UniProtKB/TrEMBL annotation:
Signal peptide: none annotated. It comes from the Bacteria. Gene3D superfamilies: Glycosidases. Residues 415-432 have a biased composition (Basic and acidic residues). One of its GO terms (molecular function) is hydrolase activity, hydrolyzing O-glycosyl compounds. One of its GO terms (biological process) is carbohydrate metabolic process. Residues 415-445 are annotated as: Disordered. InterPro entries: GH, Glyco_hydro_1, Glycosyl_Hydrolase_39. It comes from Fimbriimonas ginsengisoli Gsoil 348. This is Beta-glucosidase.
């Protein structure tokens, strides 16, 4: 295979997909939901990587299953990661390494564990040491959603439903993300971090709901405010301190600002907008503002390069619902880009259909959700054909109009270790010395 033939021209626009690797626990931590298992990736990982290449995609949101890989403090089973990441490197596909996706190993327990951040820092560093050619990372996926579903809604992991549990989970999750970034940068100083986070908006259903909607619209920013070292709004500061965060913990985030290494990844689904009632309860509103408007709100707050890191919609009865949603999301991306917002990538998530996301993974029903570019028999869906064509049409156009020229991303084949560099320098020295040495003839004494 000619690896250069399908590689986009620099500066790269990150057309991506992902392998669904959610693994929260339910039923009070006694049952593990493993999307890689139920979607067949453990059996069909080679075929899945073939499909990524078939689509013309060079960037893949992908990570090892944390509960099968991280067996204890400093203890690992790297066998599956070695095999799969080795194959990605051979194919010259750039992984956006997803280290923690909605769950932790059984031996950690859940996100209420205060030891999690420091333990995760070591896990992230050990991964980076083992796979130093990996440059792009999402250390903790959707930090706000992880904390909300685990400790506010009571759906996953600790399955708690109160503000103190939410703040506990949030501060541990975001601190783990920050410490992981620090430890990865020690190994790979040019690492870039894509914060895949759900972009939310809360609409007041009537005048009495304005204040609770304002509170929820401030709360949605908490994970990224802390992660990027931005001072939170006064009402949110009181909320954090009233529910267990100390001033020292708060100042940790202000004092460990790694924003300069980050791409703001934001996810948008038709479920991301909500109607708020006067009592603060919410229900789905469907698409009201859309990706364009909500992304502008996040960008105006953080002023970072943007990547659309997740979207999908079910293929419905006519078969073209997902195709139309893809077109609409892409039109939103182009609108943002044409208005000068540095949007650097787009993702349809995920590569294949998923299981039980219709109930947010709260039950193991085995229900297939037709959300993928391919079905679970690895047969391409109409949206897969449409995405393949979209990439083919736009991959040569966007780099020439890049608004983020300084974001250097290297492919796995371009990685050179210090040993490789030293070896090349020694070889160069030998070659230079050889040309300088006098050539003796057989007749000289």
């Amino acid at each position: 295979m000619n690896l250069d033939s399908s590689r986009p021209a620099p500066p790269y626009f990150l057309f991506a997909t992902g392998i669904e690797n959610s693994y929260p626990t339910i039923h009070n931590g006694t049952v593990r939901v493993d999307e890689m298992e139920v979607c067949g990736h453990y059996l069909h990982w080679q075929k899945d990587f073939d499909l990524v290449e078939e689509l013309g995609i060079r960037f893949l949101r992908y990570g090892p299953p944390i509960h099968k890989t991280w067996l204890g403090a400093g203890k690992y089973d790297w066998s599956f990661a070695d095999t799969t990441f080795g194959d990605l490197r051979r194919r010259d596909i750039v992984p956006i390494v997803d280290l923690c996706h909605f769950g932790v190993p059984d031996w950690i327990g859940n996100f209420q564990n205060p030891d999690f951040p420091n333990l995760f820092r070591q896990y992230a560093r050990d991964f980076a040491v083992r796979f130093p050619w990996a440059q792009l990372y999402t250390p903790v996926n959707e930090m706000f959603i992880t904390a909300t579903f685990s400790a506010a809604y009571g759906w996953w992991n600790e399955q708690l439903s109160n503000d103190t549990a939410f703040v506990n989970a949030l501060k541990h999750i975001v601190k783990a993300n920050v410490l992981a970034m620090q430890s990865i940068l020690e190994v790979r100083p040019d690492a870039l971090f894509v914060q895949s986070e759900s972009s939310e908006y809360f609409h007041a259903s009537n005048p009495e709901a304005i204040h609770p909607a304002e509170i929820l619209n401030a709360r949605r920013f908490l994970s990224l405010d802390l992660n990027y070292g931005r001072r939170v709004e006064s009402e949110m500061y009181e909320f954090l301190l009233d529910n267990g965060m100390t001033r020292e913990e708060y100042h940790f985030f202000l004092g460990n600002r790694l924003k300069q290494h980050c791409i703001m990844g934001n996810d948008y689904y038709i479920t991301n907008e909500h109607r708020v009632s006067p009592d603060g309860s919410t229900q789905a509103s469907g698409e009201v503002f859309g990706y364009d408007e909500i992304t502008r709100q996040y960008y105006s707050r953080y002023r970072l390069p943007v990547m659309h890191t997740e979207t999908n919609i079910q293929e419905g009865p006519t078969g073209d619902e997902a195709v139309y949603w893809l077109w609409k999301e892409w039109a939103n991306v182009l609108r943002l880009r044409n208005d000068g917002i540095p949007i650097v990538g787009f993702t349809w998530y995920s590569l294949t259909d998923q299981i039980d996301w219709d109930v947010a993974l709260r039950e193991k029903n085995g229900t297939v959700n037709p959300l993928g570019l391919y079905d679970l028999n690895r047969k391409i869906r109409p949206v897969g054909e449409a995405y393949k064509q979209l990439i083919s049409d736009w991959k040569e156009v966007l780099p020439t109009q890049s608004v983020c020229l300084r974001m250097h991303i290297s492919f796995p084949s371009e990685y050179r270790s210090e040993a490789d560099t030293q070896s090349r320098e020694e070889a160069s020295d030998r070659a230079r010395n050889a040309t300088l040495e006098p050539v003796s003839s057989g007749g000289d004494s």
